Amino acid sequence: MRFVMTILFFMAPVIAEETIPWEKEFEIAAKTAKEQDKPILLFFKPPAFLDNKTTKELETGALSDQKVVTLVKDKIIATVVALNTPQDAVQKFNKYNISADSVPQLSFLISSGQEVRELRHSGKNIAADELIKKLNELININTKIIWESNLEDAMKHAKEQVKPVVVITTKKDDKESATFLTDLDTYRHQIYPLKNDFIWYKQENSKLTIEFTNPYTGTKKGAKPANKMDQFKADLQFYFNSFKKDHLSSKFVCTKCNKTKDKEGKCCNQKLIKIRAFICEKCGNASAKEKECCKEKMKPKIEN
Ligand SMILES: [Zn+2]
Ligand SMILES: [Zn+2]
What we know:
It is a single chain. The chain is of the alpha+beta class. The protein folds into three domains: 26-142, Glutaredoxin (3-Layer(aba) Sandwich), CATH 3.40.30; 147-247, Glutaredoxin (3-Layer(aba) Sandwich), CATH 3.40.30; 252-302, no CATH class. It is 30% helix and 22% strand. It contains eight helices and 18 strands. The strands form five sheets. Strands 5-7-6-8-9 form a five-stranded mixed beta sheet, sandwiched between helices. The protein starts with 25 loop residues before the first helix and ends with a strand. The structure holds zinc ion (2 copies).
């Protein structure tokens, strides 16, 4: 006769601290990031035998913070590279500019593997809040361009949000068109946050052309066929500045007494709110200046 012994384990009521799931192979992390369209947190560490104080502070501080851990687990691919000799840094990860002085270093990459240079953090500790800010910024930058499904919607949303429209015309099986769209996707962080200042519409028709449209006047302006991202960025910036001059306000408003002010501050015991533009409630026109339209005073639209 056999007895089945049942052993009961009584678990101690300990809440386990969660940790960041660090991928040790950079290539695997890069592949997963592409597949899942997630950005990458790349952590360069000095070799363990150096017993580096800053690295320990980072690991036990911000990188163990439960809010950071949750955010990374949900939305980011984390990978760690322990640099064993200075040679490692020079060869494989040369482009991340690592040196004995810069590690520990946190580098932030969009899903395509492109680094967002402005977010890089080297050689010192970081507060959890600051890291969360950087990670959220990275998630934002990684967000793909949202293409409107038709031109009517693009114009409608552009008016509602007081943004100009960028219309990109491409041709099927055209090499120039394909290259531009790939570059736009790969290097999208270069045009962030400008990317969010426009409404995007893409159509297939003729060879690659880029056109900016003012949704209020219907005025169109062509840009150079951008085969370089920096050229395209300059064109976006130039067009946005002229749109801003006509349509975007730099004023503030008190939502209690409706008075507008030139500078940030308080009124009626509350903080003034930034105005995006003055809107005509009759025709939907937007203006940088407070003026009359359709025989009525334009109303401030609050920045959201
Ligand atoms: Zn007031
Ligand atoms: Zn009007």
